[in-house]
Write a structure and sequence with these properties.
Number of helices: 14
Largest sheet: 7 strands, mixed
Structural class: alpha/beta
Radius of gyration: 22 Å
Bound molecules: pyridoxal-5'-phosphate
Helix content: 25-40%
Distance between the termini: 58 Å
Number of strands: 17
Shape: globular
Length: 454
C-alpha cells in the first residue's frame, strides 16, 4: 500500500517547496506570491509551515473554513463516513447522509418554500447554475450585475464580475450582462455619499428597470452579494436591497443572492441578506456549506424550479464527505451560535481597528459586518475627493499584507487596486486570538509605513 506523502516539519524549507511549485505549476498561481509558505499542518485559527512557524490565519481558505482548520466534529464526520462504507461519489443519487444534510440545510430557509439543487462543487459552478436557471425560468437572456461584484472566474461568472483586470485578458465573455452601480459608504459611485447617495442609487435602480427608454431589455435575473467580499467588503444598505427585492418581484425578474462568501454566520446572521429581511428567489451557497470540503448548492424558491430533468448536470454533485462535513458544520453553527460569535468578535475588531484609524491616517475606512471586515488603505497625503475620500493606496496595502506575513498573520486584500485589507478569519476565533490579531496588524502597519513612506 502506498504511503501518502504528508510532510513532517523541518525536513525541507518553505523556499524548497515554493521553488518546486514555481517549476511544476502554472504561472496562474496567486496566493503563494503573497503568502510564500508551504503548509505542514493546521488547527483552529492556526497554520504551521514546514519550518515550524505558526501563523494566525485570517484568510481561512478565502472564508471557507467557518469552523477553522480540522475542527474535531469535521474530522469525526469524515471518519464516520469512511468507517460506514458509504460510496464517496454518488452523482446526484441519494443516500441517508445526503437526505439528512438536505433537510438540515433546508431548515435555515422558510419552511416548505425552497428546494435544493446540488451543483458542481465551486462557487462559480453555483452562480453559473443560478443564471442558467433564471434564463430557463424567464425565457429571457440578460442579467444585471453590480460594479465591485465577484461571482467567480468561469466564463459566465466572470462576465458578471466587476474586476476588469481579470476580464480584459479574456475576450467573448457571456453577452447580455448589464452592470449597475453598487452603493459604497466610502466611495459612493455617484459622488454624493451618505444617505443621499444611497437614496439616489435606490431611485436609480427602480427608474432604470421601469424606464421604457432605458435601452436595456428586461433581464432574466439580478445577481448580487449582500456584502461584496472580493470587491472590498462593501455592505448593501438595507433600503437599497429592499427596493431591489420589491422591483424584481414586481417585474418578474429572478433575484439571485450570491452568499458564497458572506453566508453561513459570517456576517452575524446565517445569510447576509437576512439583515435586510428579504427573501431571494435563488440563493447561491458554496465555501462554508461544505464544512471545509468542496460543495456548492442552490436554494431555489419552489415556483422558480423550472429545470427539466437533467437540465443542468455535473459529475461532482454527490461528494458524501463534503455533505458529512457540511452537516457537522451546520450543527456546530447552530449549537454554538457562531453567528453571535461572529457578531461579537467582529464588533470588537472593528472598534479596535477604528481606534487604529485615529492613529494611522492611511486607514481611510473600516467597515463590514461580523467577521467580514475591510480596512481601506489610502494615501492621506493627497487631496480628498468631493465626498471626503482619499485616493486608494494599493502599494501600501500590499506592503501591509507583506508585513502581516512577517508577523505571522495571514490575510488577503481586495477592492479597487487591492487597497482593502480583509479579515475573513474562522468564526470560532476567540477573544484572545482577536487581540493577538490586532497586535500583529498594528506592528505590520508601522513596519509598512516605515518601508514605504519614510
Ligand atoms: C461571492 C462569491 N461568489 C462566487 C465565488 C466563486 O467561488 P469559487 O472560487 O469557489 O468558484 C466567490 C469566491 O470567492 C465569491 O466570493
Amino acid at each position: 500500500m502506498t504511503n501518502t506523502p504528508v510532510n513532517p516539519i523541518n525536513q525541507a524549507t518553505n523556499e524548497y517547496y515554493l521553488t518546486r511549485q514555481n517549476e511544476m505549476e502554472s504561472n496562474v498561481r496567486s496566493y503563494p506570491r503573497k503568502l510564500p509558505l508551504a503548509i505542514a499542518k493546521a488547527q483552529g485559527c492556526w497554520v504551521t509551515d514546514v519550518e515550524g512557524n505558526e501563523y494566525l490565519d485570517c484568510l481561512a481558505g478565502a472564508g471557507t473554513l467557518a469552523l477553522g482548520h480540522n475542527h474535531p466534529d469535521v474530522i469525526k464526520a469524515i471518519q464516520d463516513v469512511l468507517a460506514s462504507g458509504l460510496p464517496l461519489h454518488t452523482l446526484d443519487l441519494t443516500t441517508p447522509l445526503k437526505d439528512a444534510f438536505t433537510e438540515e440545510l433546508l431548515s435555515f430557509f422558510p419552511k416548505g418554500e425552497y428546494r435544493l439543487q446540488f451543483c458542481g462543487p465551486s462557487g462559480a459552478d453555483g452562480t453559473e447554475a443560478a443564471i442558467k436557471l433564471a434564463k430557463t425560468y424567464t425565457g429571457r437572456g440578460n442579467v444585471i450585475s453590480f460594479s465591485g461584484g465577484y461571482h467567480g472566474m468561469t466564463h459566465g461568472s466572470l462576465s458578471m464580475t466587476g474586476n476588469l483586470n481579470a476580464k480584459n485578458a479574456v475576450q467573448n465573455l457571456m453577452a447580455g450582462v448589464q452592470f449597475m452601480p453598487y452603493p459604497h459608504e466610502y466611495r459612493c459611485p455617484l459622488g454624493i455619499g451618505g444617505e443621499a447617495g444611497v437614496d439616489a442609487l435606490t431611485y436609480y435602480f427602480e427608474n432604470f428597470i421601469e424606464d421604457v427608454e432605458s435601452g436595456v431589455v428586461k433581464p432574466a435575473a439580478v445577481i448580487l452579494e449582500a456584502i461584496q467580499g472580493e470587491g472590498g467588503v462593501v455592505t448593501a444598505p438595507v433600503k437599497w436591497l429592499q427596493k431591489i427585492r420589491e422591483v424584481t418581484k414586481k417585474h418578474g425578474i429572478v433575484l439571485i443572492l450570491d452568499e458564497v462568501q458572506a453566508g453561513f454566520c459570517r456576517s452575524g446572521k446565517m445569510f447576509a441578506f437576512e439583515h435586510a429581511g428579504i427573501e431571494p428567489d435563488v440563493v447561491v451557497m458554496s465555501k462554508a456549506v461544505g464544512g471545509s470540503l468542496p460543495l456548492a448548492v442552490l436554494a431555489i424558491k419552489k415556483e422558480f424550479d423550472a429545470w427539466q430533468p437533467a437540465g443542468h448536470t455535473g459529475t461532482f454533485r454527490g461528494n458524501q464527505l463534503a455533505m458529512a462535513t457540511g452537516y457537522a458544520s451546520l450543527k456546530v453553527m447552530k449549537e454554538q451560535n457562531l453567528a453571535q460569535n461572529a457578531q461579537q468578535r467582529g464588533d470588537f475588531l472593528q472598534a479596535e481597528l477604528k481606534k487604529l484609524a485615529q492613529q494611522f491616517g492611511c486607514i481611510g475606512n473600516v467597515r463590514g459586518k461580523g467577521l467580514m471586515i475591510g480596512i481601506e488603505i489610502v494615501d492621506e497625503r493627497q487631496p480628498q475627493d468631493r465626498i471626503g475620500a482619499y485616493p486608494a493606496d494599493g502599494v501600501l496595502a500590499a506592503e501591509i499584507q507583506k508585513a502581516c506575513f512577517k508577523h505571522k498573520l495571514l490575510l488577503e486584500r481586495g477592492g479597487r487596486g487591492g487597497n482593502v485589507v480583509r479579515i475573513l478569519c474562522p468564526l470560532i476565533i476567540t477573544q484572545s486570538e482577536c487581540e493577538e490579531m490586532i497586535k500583529r496588524f498594528t506592528q505590520a502597519v508601522q513596519d509598512a509605513l516605515k518601508a514605504t513612506r519614510s
